[in-house]
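User: Before I run my own analysis I want an independent prediction to cross-check against. Here's the chain; please return only the structure tokens and, at the end, one sentence I can use as a sanity check.
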Amino acid sequence: MVTVGGPPARGDLPTDPEVHVAALDDTGLARLMWTHFEPVHAVTYFHPRARSAYEAVGLRGYWRGYFAGRAAPLGAVAAPTVVAAFFSFAPSMVARALPSVWRLATPEEALRARLTGAVQALAEFTYELPESHLVEAADLLEEAAGQVETAGRVLGAVNAALPRGEYPLARLWQAATTLREHRGDGHVAALVTTGLTPVEVVAWRCRADQSREFHQPARGWTDEEWAAAEERLVEAGWLTAGREPTGHGTETFRAVEEATDRAALGPWRALGAERTARLRELLEPIATRCRTIIPPKAPIGLPAQRGSARDASAPAR
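Assistant: Structure tokens:
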């Protein structure tokens, strides 16, 4: 996962099936579509079949599979490249996985494993849907992904350049992955404009609406690094002396999220309102099933879905 979420969800907007895409402003449309393709991508992190596929090529342990699979489109890169691209991880955590994972599996093997695991996971969630449904969804999502602007977006670009999948579920997952990495690249660019470092961003979010207990070990920051980050956030006006988010911090981060949405709008403008609405309709049952395996504390930031067991206070990235 690229970031640690976003501002509070806008009511029921992202998951309310009665909201039509034509009724949304630009940022609302980009966010709505993100809530539909992000769960499709996320099976690669949370489904047992995805984990098994990585283990089959020698990538045992969650983080080996995560770093190798997500970094594989870049080639056999070393830790500094991934620290920069993934943004929120402590360099020491990344260095424990890279470049050593490439001695266990080549980038090509990691790519095959991540696609195999993702397709197997999606097959479990979509077996009741007719093939025509999956083909149409893959076609439209692939068309949207083909419209991403890749300049300045490294992870989006390398995923967009991968070979086209042979089967509908492979095409669907790869298109979702291209779109989410493209969006993530834009989000990182917006975060950089705040002047905050990665640990400061994570620490601030955990004071705002997320869990330090979960995110600190998941991102690899030490207690000393975390404490120093919070001190800097106080000095910069993002936290009060009592470690509460300030109005400045909250509003600045909301601006970051709005910039993220605007920067992710291109594919949906290109697809047009009518076909975007159709794609949303097609993705709805797939995304709903995929959401069931995403832990409530996962740093993706998807808003709660009606009728789900997910935390209703979850933020939308």
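Sanity check: Residues 1-15, 306-317 have pLDDT under 50 and may be disordered.
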